[in-house]
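Q: What would this chain look like folded?
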Amino acid sequence: MLISQDEIRRNMLNVNDGENTPALPLMKELLIYGSKHSDIVILEGIMNADWYKPLFELAIQLYGTEVFAYYFDLTFEETLKRHLTRVKCQEFGEKAMRRWWREKDFSDILNEISITAEKDMENIVKDIYDTILNEYSI
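A: My prediction, written as structure tokens:
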């Protein structure tokens, strides 16, 4: 089950991000639903560590040690460069991204694994896949 922050916040609810965003309660409910009805739940998005802390706490409560958290630890310049390769790159640009940017916004709840600029998409996916396979001996 994929819980996409953008899909919920922007497309379903059409609400702004921020402290106490109206998207947070729905994302929490979907996380609970996923824990009961799906073998794998992926929570995806660029979530401010402070604003989304209640969601992260719930994830730990529901899934315990079975939470794999990843953080793109990139410079703003690298983030912008990667954004320009995306299909959705015309939806927003550098000015908006600079407004949203938070350097080193690590969660104090999640044990995040850093993804750095040296890794391309293929290697990122491979590393995540291998980690999960090794963890569960699949």
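The CA atoms of residues 80 and 97 lie 8 Å apart.
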